[in-house]
Amino acid sequence: MKSSVSQLRGRGFLRDEDLDASRHLSAAELTRQLDSTDAVERSAAVRLLSRPAGPDVALDQLFVERLTRETKLYTKLELCEALQAGGQETAQLLIPLLGAIGRNQHTQPAVEAFKKTSYPLPRDIVARVLARMEPVVLPSLIAAVVDGSRTQAVEAIDAVGFLCFYSVVTTPDRLAALNALTEKLRGSPDDELMQWKIVRALESFNHPNATLILERIVAGNANPVIVQEAQRSLALVVEQPALRASFDTELR
């Protein structure tokens, strides 16, 4: 059923006339409008505040804080789009919130088959933002996989896989990401959610080590959902740029 105009506005859907109604406001007034009881006004404030060129970490801090408590769909989307334009400092604001907003995250390997040749969009809202940022944030995401809490790591894996699948990432950064994922896989023998997410992320790396890991999982993993994902990843790795360089991790 198609949503009515009032329903869309209740979710913060922004029209040109709504922008025009707030365009005369100063930055300070728009900042206050971020806390308006009207979702459309909040959406307009985000859109207008994010227009000026150049990074603004203080503003992104406000957007991040608003995202943690925003409940309306289209206002959330405005916040996400604004934050996606940030850089490393913005990523550092977001990473502690991985897995902490909403309840849409996977809690176990997904039974439903994902048969598309695209990389699935992360379900965690913060991982979605990070996955769509520029590759400069990849080292911060790798650090979250390696040193973050389990909650942060399982969502950061989705962002790493998505970013490496779609973005032009340097070979050293791509290899660093692959190394971090394989080490995490090795260190998580009893964590099926972690294994499943890493197996999915490996579709982004056309490297012999990734292929070997996936082949071993297909041959010997007891979980059919993980095996299915490994088979899918094996079919997709060949579409990624070949990684000829090696790294120090020895596969056993």
Written description of the protein model:
- This protein is an all-alpha fold.
- It has two domains: 1-85, no CATH class; 106-252, no CATH class.
- It has helices spanning 5-10, 16-22, 27-33, 39-49, 57-67, 73-84, 88-94, 125-131, 138-147, 150-166, 171-186, 192-201, 208-220, 224-237.
- The longest helix is centred in the middle third of the chain and has 17 residues, at 150-166.
- Mean pLDDT is 93; it is low at 248-252.
User: Helix fraction?
Assistant: 55-70%
Q: Structural class from helices and strands? A: mainly alpha
Shape: elongated
Pick out the low-confidence regions. Answer: 248-252
CA radius of gyration: 20 Å
Number of strands: 0
Tally of domains: 2
Q: How far is the first residue's CA from the last residue's CA? A: 54 Å
Percent of residues in β-strands: under 5%
Q: Which oligomeric state applies?
A: single chain
Summarize the structure.
With 252 residues, this protein is mostly helical.
Q: Can you lay out the helices and strands and say which pair or pack?
A:
Elements: H1 5-10, H2 16-22, H3 27-33, H4 39-49, H5 57-67, H6 73-84, H7 88-94, H8 125-131, H9 138-147, H10 150-166, H11 171-186, H12 192-201, H13 208-220, H14 224-237
Helix pairs in contact: 3-4, 4-6, 5-6, 5-7, 6-8, 8-10, 9-10, 9-11, 10-12, 11-12, 12-14, 13-14
